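Re: weekly structure request thread

Next one in the queue (190 aa):
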Amino acid sequence: MRCAPFGLMLMLCIDTSAMAEIYRYTDKDGHTVFTNQPPEGIKAETVELPPANTLDASPPSSPSSPSSPSSPSPTLPNAHSTAQAYSSIQLSGIPDAQALRSNNGNFSVSARLTPALQPGHSLRLLLDGQPVGAAGSDTVFHLSGIERGEHSLQLEVLSGNRVIQSGPVNTFTLQRVNTSSPAMRPRPAP
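Done, posted below.
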């Protein structure tokens, strides 16, 4: 009986911590600062976060009678249900009309799926038609050392090693400083 009030208080504390607000403001040097406490004397705006990706944990359904043929669970992938399992597969963080500027060739892109990634599925990013890293459940992809020029990115959804759905091909241009340019060479000493 003594544990019930303690458990209730613990649940209330956990619930309120998930609803903490995030504030954004610009400091005196022009840097954007994010914090969980509003600064004194500085106008800060509240940051609205999109809802987190969640999966409903439902127990697997059992057949209604032992003599009935077993049917696959709706959450398990099969050849028919996974053909168009996702209504939207998109990459964000890629500029549409302008070039992506990254002098070291490092940048990140994020995957957005509707609905969220299903159990048993994984994501794979293709750069110029070639896989980048191993397939996994991460929705943020960090690319490094990419050469300047035009490139394409595409997201694939896998079930095991089989591609079940692909997103659109996103073409972009990466700009980097050309260090062999005559303008970048050091001038000779007089």
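The two ends are 88 Å apart (CA to CA). The chain has a mean pLDDT of 75.
Next request, please.
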